Amino acid sequence: MSILVLAAALLALAYPDVLGQVRPTVINYLLGVVMFGMGLTLNLQDFKIVFSRPKDVVIGCLAQFTVMPLLAWALARLFQLDEALALGVVLVGCCPGGTASNVITYLAKGDLALSVGMTGVSTLLAPFLTPLLTWALAGKSVDVDVTSMFLSILCVVILPIVVGLLVKWLFPKFTEKATDYLPAFSSIAIAFIVSIVIAANANKLMAGGLLIVVVVMFHNICGLGLGYLIGSALRLADPKKRAISIEVGMQNSGLASSLATIHFAAYPLASIPGAIFSVWHNLSGAAVAYLYRRK
After folding, report:
1. Other Cβ atoms within 10 Å of 180 Cβ, number
2. pLDDT tens-place string over residues 90-121
3. Which of 40, 78, 263, 274 is the most buried (most CB within 10 A)?
């Protein structure tokens, strides 16, 4: 997936006129496909951990929705980003955990049940917390429509997941066969999201994109590190620390790009941090999984 997303980003930079013809609204449908796939893979057992180990899930979700949003705000101020890029970084920070985090946690020999539970719970909380946190951290400089963002996340994220769950319940045999191909479809969809966003802003990104790349890298690396430190401070077992580290550091950056495209069209560069994050966190996630396994 890392190679595919990186290749899509480079192609978008090389041939922006081709991909730039795709309407940005296509991003919402592509993200819906990814979330539908997530719904097909979820089951009630994934949420059993919420009731059997509520402390672990609460710790993880609190870290998710405090560390990354505050880090985003602090980095935007520290590097003195303009309004659009600062908004994009904050949007990434306020989004729930990404679906790739479960795969990375598995590869890192982390607590997979905790990772899946955190992703599910943070995704369900996203319609409420993502708009409110974005408004709290970026509402002074840009107009944030909390209600509209809430409805968008319901339609683009929650509804496809619910449909996926229903399809899995109604057609279990079909779903069992389809899940073998879901990672490939999700990877292609995310790669298209990245390519559409980068192609639309290729000239501006090439002119001064190094700074935002550095900020996105810092955001992700600090999130991974602080997530692990929080687990260490609370004396959690090592697999739990790994899961929280990866869940905190890896965001649903496709959602960030989608929200930026829908609700902040006046700030086209706001979708760029999400696209860069999608490329980078897959690379850093693979590296972190390797380091944790070596440890």
Report:
1. 8
2. 999 999 987 788 888 988 999 988 998 898 89
3. 274
Q: What is the residue-averaged pLDDT of the chain?
A: 87
Residue (of 134, 144, 261) closest to 197 by Cα position: 261
- Global pTM? 0.89
Q: Please report the sign of the dihedral spanned by the C-alpha atoms of residue 113, residue 119, residue 123, residue 126.
A: positive
- Cα–Cα distance measured from residue 295 to residue 293, given in angstroms and rounded to the nearest whole number: 5
Tell me if 68 sits within 8 A of 94, measured CB to CB.
yes
Q: How far apart are CA 248 and CA 243, in angstroms?
A: 8
- Which tens digits make up the pLDDT trace of 213-254? 999 999 999 999 999 999 999 999 999 999 999 999 999 888
Tell me phi and psi for residue 119, to 5 degrees. Answer: -60, -45
pLDDT in tens, 244-253: 999 999 998 8
209 φ/ψ angles, rounded to the nearest 5 degrees: -90, -10
Which residue in the block uniquely carries the two structure tokens 């949420």? 47
